[in-house]
Every structure is written in C-alpha cells, then in structure tokens.
TrEMBL record:
Keywords: Acyltransferase, Transferase. GO terms for molecular function: acyltransferase activity. It comes from Dietzia aerolata. SUPFAM superfamilies: Acyl-CoA N-acyltransferases (Nat). Gene3D superfamilies: 3.40.630.30. Pfam families: Acetyltransf_CG. This is GNAT family N-acetyltransferase. InterPro entries: Acyl_CoA_acyltransferase (IPR016181), Gcn5-rel_NAT (IPR045057), GNAT_YJDJ (IPR031165). Transmembrane segments: none annotated. Its EC number is 2.3.1.-. Residues 17-108 form the N-acetyltransferase domain.
C-alpha cells in the first residue's frame, strides 16, 4: 500500500490510502474503512498514456454527508496524475467530480 493524506480535523483522523494489490483507494475514519473506490489500470499503446478506470465508489451510509467520497476521489485523481495516467470515469460519482472540478478535467 502506498500512503495518502491524513487530516486530524474534528475528533477522528481521516486518511486516504491506495491499495495497489486490491486495486482500490480507501478512506479511513480513525481505524475504520469508511469507503472505497475500485480501479484498474490499462497500459497505454503507441506512446499514449495508460488509463485508470474507476468503475465503482462506495461510502458506508453511517459516514454519509461528510464529503468523504469527494475527498477520496480528489486524492485518487491526484495519485492518478502523479502516475501519469488518464481517467476513464465509469463511476457516475467520479464523472461528476471531474465535471465539478475543472483542475481534474485534463485527466479524462
């Protein structure tokens, strides 16, 4: 696993981490996995950048309304940019995030 961001705002630490083996980003509240975004990578061909597809994003209902999904996807897209990949946003939440955040538009 590679690291992600940590925030100790409020009573509980919030952290996003990437599990490359499982192909997902997870957001943790304290020690609890509150949600995840699945992904799979495809290599580029002919000099084109590879593509990271995000098919599914989930945040447990008990953690809803805190903006955790947006935070997780923001960090997942930042990691995708660092990895030199483009994004295929199959997940409607990821597609909506990209639409609402123009700084991520070049990834799609």
């Amino acid at each position: 696993m590679s690291g992600g961001g940590t925030d100790t705002g409020g009573d509980e630490a919030v952290q996003v981490r990437q599990d490359e083996v499982a192909g997902k980003f997870e957001i943790l509240v304290g020690d609890v996995v509150a949600g995840f975004a699945d992904y799979h990578d495809e290599p580029g061909t002919g000099g084109a950048a590879g593509v990271r597809t995000f098919p599914h994003t989930v945040v447990d209902s008990e953690f809803g309304g805190r903006g955790l999904a947006g935070r997780m996807i923001g960090e997942a897209l930042a990691a995708t940019r660092r990895d030199g990949l483009r994004v295929n946003p199959e997940c409607t939440f990821v597609a909506g995030y990209i639409t609402k955040n123009p700084d991520s538009a070049e990834l799609a």
